[in-house]
Every structure is written in C-alpha cells, then in structure tokens.
DNA sequence: CCGCACATCAAACTTTCGGTTGACCGGGCG
DNA sequence: CGCCCGGTCAACCGAAAGTTTGATGTGCGG
C-alpha cells in the first residue's frame, strides 16, 4: 500500500450527507477527507485547484449546476482527480450521463459503507467501480439497444408532460392526431409503459423531459 | 438544562445519512443516539419497545412501509416518542400526510446542522418544529382554503402523477373506481384543468405533489 | 340539532386515449 | 440502386378516462 492517504473531496448539497460520508470515510486509515463542496460549481473549483485524488459527487444539487455537468468539467482537465458518482437514483439517464461525463464509478447512497470504501480504492487505483445494481442496468441497456427516444418523440412527450391532450399537441406541432398517437405508441414501447401518465412519470424519473420548477 | 440526554432513534434507509445524523447529533452534549432503523417497519418496532424521546423519520424508504404510515403507527401509542420528519421534499402531499400522522415537526435534509439540533430540542420539549419553508407553505394553505385539495384528493393525485391508472389507484387505496373518479373531478375543478395529465402538471408546478427526481 | 364538508359509491353516458393495421415519403447507407 | 428508419397520416375498435346525477354515512362546528 502507498504511504500517502487517498485525498477525498465530498460534493453534496446536504450537510447531513457530507457529515455521514466524512464519518464513514475518515474512519478508514488510508483515506483523508481533504475538502467539501455544497454546490457543483464549488466542487469544480476545488477540484481544479488540485490536491484531491478522488471526488465523491452527488448528481442532484438543489440549485445550480448538475452533478454530471460538474463531473464532465472536472474530468476534462489533464491530471484531474477521479470522480465517483454517489447518488440516490439508478435511472438510465443518470447513469449514462455520468458515465459519458467521465465518471470512474457510480454508487447508490443506500450502499453499505464497506462497499463505498472499496469503490473509492478501486477508483483511486484507476479502475471502474460500478454498483452491482448499476452494472446490471447497463448490461440490460446493451442487450436492448434502440431505447433512445427520437427528438420528435421527446418533443411530443414533453407536451404530454405539460398537460396537453393529443388534440392540443397536434395543433401545437402542426400534426394530425394520428401522428401524435403514433409517436406516443413508440414512446410507450421504449419506456415500457402503457399510459400517458405512466410515460410522463417514467420520463421524469429518467430525466428525459423536464418538469417545471 | 436537564441532566438526562435526549435519546434519539434514527430512521432512514441510507447508511450514509444515518452516519451523518449520528455524527452531527452525537456532537451535541445533550443528545444521545440510542438506535437506528433502516426500514419504517423496524422503526415502529423499536419505537414501541421504548427508550426513545425523539424519532428522526425519513419519508421515502426504498421498500416497504412509508414514513408517514410509520409515523402514524408510532404516535398512535400512548407515551410514544415525538416524531420529527426529516425528508428531501416539501410538497403539500408529504407535509400534510406527516402532520396528520402526528409528526411533531417537518425538516428538510438540506437544513444546516444547528437548525436540526434546535428542532430536536423543540420536539423533545413537546412543541412543534417546522422548517421555515414548510411553515410558509402551511400558512399559504390556510390563507387560501378555497382551492386547497383535501388529503385524500392529494393522495389520489400523487398516484396519478406516479403513472397509475384509476383501476390501479382504486386497488391501492381500497376504493371503487367511482370514488377515484369522484376525487379527480374535484381535483380538476380546484386546479382549473380538465385532464389527469394537466392536473399532474399543475400540481407539480404548484408543488402540491412530488415528482421523483 | 342542523348544516356542511369530506369521503364513499353506483350507473349510464360521452369523449379521449390506446392499439392495430396499413400506407406514403424522404434521406442515409451498404 | 434498394433497403431501412424516421416522420407523417388514415381508419377503426375496444378500453380507459371523464361527466352527470344522485345517494349514503360520518364528523365537526355553529
């Protein structure tokens, strides 16, 4: 083992979660929590200033930059620390965004502490660390490609989420109702649901569309 | 100050959050974390066995009983500990359910530690502890009772937002479809919409219900 | 005690949505 | 070039959602 501890940066908007991570990780002799950030912007700033080996990054911050954007900003720099995403949701959109942003791992917050510590060591060693459940979801996606919604399908789905009827959507987009239905049928198939409200719920959960707020 | 510490029970499905709460609260000289529960069921069990003054209760557990149900179960017993709800969302549906279940307070997880400690002391003293943002929402509701949704209506609407059909909702809540429709008709009238998706969109915009994410 | 709000249910009705089938067109690619 | 995919549309039918009317029970406050 190395003689210098692994220096960690904790990025989460919840003080309670930061305290929990600090308590759990500082208990490990080879770890050293060297900084905390309550916003994604602050995490990018601190990571750029150097002095960290691994960043533990939340995805959903109350306000401001999203964790995946921060991850991309951090990993884009040469000699950047490894970023380990630690979040509550294991949705496809979140996982893919994190992986594409260059995350070295993806863990769920309900993971037991020893699993978390192991993942940090794996990431520090330059390897990938995916939670079993997350790895499983990625495998699923690979097995069934063509899950991605087309631009037009997302456009229709967004309007459904805004509360419009097929009639209203068809007028808004200068389409026939038949076309709107056609798009929605494809959306239902891709999302694995069978109603418009379920499609919206699934799409919001996967961050495919935005919900006002 | 009293000579005996306030004994706490932490109920949250995330080990990290429990560790964080423990770290933050054990630092207070007059607090003593006397137990942890990873499920709502376990929290009810432990609370019933006695030995706690205040329960810190999360609302969303990954599986099993909901936090508001657990709160109701705990506060229903004579000599029960005070329950302080500590969650991520400040929607009407969650807040009303918690308050009606007998919660002594409602805090958000992004609250600073000292606010949390203060709320625990307030709850232990037998008073109500509401986060400022939450208190404000409750005030708003009182001021405009006309279009306020009843608890039952919110409950139905939340399930609609989760993508369930009337049939599924009726089974989930042990109602007839007629009753579900009846509630929705009232919801539509109060929100000024005329479809379920529009109702969900309006409710999310007004933060009446929670949309995952 | 009476009224009112809330929650519950029933039945019949209209409208919208969901699912299917089939079709046309334009563009990208082997 | 021929093929497939994305986007467009039509007609149809059954299922679900939404509308209307009306009714019952319960609890709370004037």
TrEMBL record, chains A, B:
Q: Which UniProt keywords apply?
A: DNA-binding, Phosphoprotein, Transcription, Transcription regulation
| CDD domains found in the cross-reference section | LuxR_C_like, REC_NarL-like
Occurrences of domain Response regulatory (ranges): 7-124
Provide the HTH luxR-type domain boundaries: 142-207
**What residue ranges are annotated as transmembrane?**
none
**Signal peptide start and end residues:** none
Asked whether the keyword Transcription regulation is assigned, the reply is: yes
Which Gene3D superfamilies does the entry link to? 3.40.50.2300
Q: Which PROSITE patterns match?
A: HTH_LUXR_1, HTH_LUXR_2, RESPONSE_REGULATORY
One short Pfam name that applies is GerE
Residues modified as 4-aspartylphosphate are: 58
Decide whether keyword Nucleotide-binding is in the record.
no
What is the protein name stated in its UniProt record?
Response regulator transcription factor
What is the species of this protein?
Streptomyces crystallinus
